[in-house]
Design goal:
single chain; 397 residues; six-stranded antiparallel beta sheet; 12 helices; 35% helix; globular
């Protein structure tokens, strides 16, 4: 006869096995899953914009440069966010080279790409579905076209966390001297050598080559006529890299929670999404962030514009404030906590993130991986969140 202890151990093992199966089942979620419904009905910022006839009329232009400026204004995307990439891996790869790079502009929920002599590409974040892709000015039939098939072949898979998203696997964790291959980088980087500004042929022949640490403008690098600025600001690049990975992680958490709820697998302890919640909170709190070895200064006004954004507490502090001396953010908690994407997470997921976040910031969670957060950092972040996130659960720091 089996002992009660043996039976208890067997039940526990079976329970863990079920959780493991559930986690594995959640790995491959199809776009057509009823809890996701990735399709034509969307609430991303571009879809919302196009439902406004007044804005739509302003965008009806065959002048691509005018269309770009109007579109950025309509979506509240600053021109200072311009980044330039000369790698040819995109829909318009045949047009892109070091003398004709692709320009990217972004805010918290939309990225807009433009190639001189080509059309406009848009990646907009739907709060629940993930990234939605459009082109503007590429078709004679319609000014804006939803580009599911062409874009999802690259933007839905392992490189995007198995959700429709942006290709940025390591975000802020990759060492700076290994970043920006195929991108222009402008600003002062305090002696840092990186992979930016070096063409692919040179890098393949001489992988030890690193770009000069200081390039303040691209005016003498190539003909910049038609571009909105002559910068590919290092500060914008650093923010963009953090944000793209944060978006993918939030989308994945939302997907897994909705699927678990729809299939009746989200238990009272939320164990099905526990690991994903921890991954989101760790990234949000910049665990394993690659340090900035010496202060960097952007070449445009991006840092000032970005740092001035966001809700502020009574002391004038904001999670949008950049540091750029030893780390990306002055207060190391992601500003994406203010995004529609975060606010529209299922209640179970958002609550679990808050609980984990407060456990770390209060010191109740003592894992050594959070030792980069000083007591002053933790207190400041909690105070800012209490003042700017009305749905934050009450807790003592």
């Amino acid at each position: 006869m089996r002992s009660p202890r043996w039976i208890a151990l067997a039940v526990a093992a079976l329970s863990w096995a079920v959780l493991a199966v559930n986690a594995q089942d959640l790995h491959d979620i199809p776009l057509s899953h009823p809890a996701i419904g990735y399709g034509p009905s969307t609430t991303d910022p571009v879809a919302v914009m196009l439902r406004d006839p007044k804005i739509r009329a302003q965008l009806d232009s065959t002048d691509r440069e005018h269309l770009l400026k109007t579109l950025l204004d309509a979506l509240s995307i600053p021109q200072e966010s311009q980044m330039l990439v000369f790698l040819s891996g995109s829909l318009q790869g045949q047009r892109i080279n070091k003398g004709n790079p692709r320009a990217l502009y972004f805010n918290d929920s939309v990225s807009v790409g433009w190639v001189r002599g080509g059309f406009i590409e848009i990646a907009a974040q739907d709060p629940t579905q993930g990234t939605v892709f459009y082109t503007a000015g590429a078709s004679s039939q319609s000014l804006f076209v939803r580009e599911n098939d062409r874009c999802l072949s690259c933007h839905f898979g392992g490189r995007t966390g198995d959700v429709p998203g942006m290709i940025e696997r390591n975000g802020h964790m990759r060492p700076l001297d290994q970043r920006w291959g195929g991108w222009y980088v402008t600003g002062q980087l305090g002696g840092l050598r990186h992979l930016g500004n070096v063409d692919q042929a040179t890098f393949l022949k001489h992988p030890e080559v690193r770009a000069p640490d200081q390039l303040l403008s691209l005016d003498t690098t190539f003909d910049t006529s038609g571009y909105l600025t002559s910068h590919s600001d290092v500060a914008a690049l650093l923010v963009f890299e953090h944000q793209m990975q944060m978006m993918n992680l939030l989308t994945r958490l939302g997907w897994e929670t909705r699927v678990a709820q729809q299939e009746g697998r989200l238990d009272a302890q939320r164990s099905v999404i526990r690991d994903r919640v921890e991954q989101v909170v760790d990234y949000m709190l910049f665990v394993d962030e690659a340090p900035i070895p010496s202060p960097v200064t952007g070449s445009s006004q991006f840092a000032a514009v970005f740092s001035g954004r966001g809700p502020h507490d009574q002391k004038g502090r904001s999670l949008y404030q950049l540091d750029l001396k030893t780390r990306l953010m002055r207060y190391p908690c992601s500003y994406m906590i203010y995004s529609e994407q975060f606010d529209q997470l299922p209640v179970a997921a958002r609550t679990a993130v808050y609980q984990r976040l407060l456990a770390v910031l209060s010191g109740a969670e003592r894992n050594r991986k959070y030792q980069h957060l000083s007591r002053a950092d933790r207190n400041a972040i909690i105070e800012i969140l209490r003042a700017t996130k009305p749905d934050l659960p009450s807790a003592r720091a």
